Amino acid sequence: MTMMQCPTTSLRAVPPALTVKPRLLRHLTLILLLILCMLGVGYLGYHLSEKSGIRQLRDNGERQLELHARAVESEINRYTYLPSLLELESSVSHLLLHPTPYRRNLVNDYLEGLNRRSGARATFLLDTEGRVLATSNWREADSFLGEDLAFRAYFQDAVQGRPGRFYGIGSTTGEAGYYLAHGLRYQGRIIGVAVVKVKLEALQERWEKARLQAFVSDENGIIILSSDPALRMKAVRPLSADDKERLARSLQYYWWALNEWEPRSRESLGEGLEAISFASHGPDGQDQDDIAYLAQTRPLAGTPWHFTLLSPLADLRREAIIQGMLAAVGLALLAFLLIAWNERRKVIATRLAAREALLAANNELERKIAERTADLRASNHRLLEEIRERKQTEENLRKAQDGLVQAGKLAVIGQMSTSIAHELNQPLAALRTLSGNTVRFLARGALDTASTNLAAINELVDRMGRITASLRAFARRSDDHGQARLGKAVDAALFLLSTRLERTALTLHRDFADVLLAIDQTRLEQILVNLIANALDAMSGQDDCQLWLAGRVDGSTYRLQVRDNGPGIDPANREHLFEPFFTTKPGEHGLGLGLTLSASLATAAGGSLAAHHPEGGGTAFELCLPLLENPGSPAP
């Protein structure tokens, strides 16, 4: 019965959140991973389908591109023979050599009939100066007759013996056309130029009827023929300011603005192949989704022009999206089947393992409870022993520290014993002399003189009392905690070292505030005595001795710096400054405990003591102690 109850109690003791949250986290991670995989497979299916569709569209487009490009070439080549045909007509040569009104009328009638039979827009004849002598449209109000066309590029090429090929907008009629020019020769020299203006709008009408989206761009990159009228006279590439100025002067496109054709996006897919997209507008002028095309371009033979076929990509991309979605759904279905199979396998395995683990868990639980109870008792016993040993160690350490501090004080007093003896010997000698003199003056009845001597004796006794009181206060055991006045501590330290100060040519600089610090008064005095005595030792033998006592507030602490202008500390000895019994003083002048005790006293009070080595020389010790009161006026 006990074995059946223990697991139940153990399982109920486990908080539900601890068992649900990791499982929920795993499920969320699995769902996120599945979504990422679906997105990746969907994108891959879309990408592969799009590439395959573009490849098929490109193959179909190449056939249409070749077919329609050849149609444009044949339309242009129909009229290439026509300008040179005028060399065979004698009336044309006679008019160019000897122009008369009669000959002009003959040639006008001839050109009118020739133009009607050929189906061209206009046929006209120019002399070597570029003046139109005869034209097929001489009967019309906007006739070319007499017009100066010397500035046209086709005339300049033909008059020099080269074939003139030019697409432009007529400066008289404003109609666009393709100009074919040929230089007419007589006895080896050019006597005029024959020009045929061809209509190409039939191609555009043919493209519109076939719902073909295509355009032709000339050597300047200007769209001259297009199934979409909005694209005509647009530049397929950016035009520089010089190009625009040159085209404007040539009047090739009359006064058209020649704006740049700006698709929303362009992506090169190979030589003469790119994917482009345009912004589409609805009937109400609102922006709709972009329309994408596959643009295929090839040059037109015999001209510097290029023919471009635009194949819509909307249906292709729609099909690619469907293929990507099917791939993602297929992956999701496969993943769900695998998850369901895995969960079913886990359930069966868990049920089988639970029966075997239940009895083992009961036995193991009771055994662990007994073992851990014994371990806890042993651990408690060890902890109690360690606590007692630690308390004893801390007590011993505190006593040792107090003894070490007291020993340091006595060591300092021992070092000052000679000065103290000298300080006391002088008053004692004076007392002996004054007391003897007072007896003799009393015997003689000189009471005023005796009274003066007795007052002097009283002052000497008070002076000796102050010296011994300072020594007793310095030697007295003190506590880690308390409070101390910085000004009072500095004065006491200087008083204890007054004899040494009198024998030293020292300049003392005081720049600190009389603040209240969180340290015992006696301990602060001991730290200052050690630091000032070390500074005096470092400057011994110098003619110019400078000692600075400078303090400043740093947040909740006060920093007092004791700096001298001595020779400084050898770099090899700097890292050992605060080690016990390390000293650089010769012989019995130092025990090596002063800085160690000072640092220990500062740390016990919650502060610190650090050494600095200024670049200008000397040594600076910075004492940091907790501040109990805002600084008052600087100490005098």
From TrEMBL:
Coiled coil feature spans: 355-403
EC numbers for this chain: 2.7.13.3
Tagged with keyword Transmembrane helix: yes
GO molecular function, one term: ATP binding
SMART domains, A to Z: HATPase_c, HisKA
Keywords tagged on the record: ATP-binding, Cell inner membrane, Cell membrane, Coiled coil, Kinase, Membrane, Nucleotide-binding, Phosphoprotein, Transferase, Transmembrane, Transmembrane helix, Two-component regulatory system
Location of the protein in the cell: Cell inner membrane
Membrane-spanning parts: 24-46, 320-341
PANTHER family referenced in this protein's UniProt entry, alphabetically: C4-DICARBOXYLATE TRANSPORT SENSOR PROTEIN DCTB, SENSOR HISTIDINE KINASE
Name listed for the protein in its UniProt record: C4-dicarboxylate transport sensor protein DctB
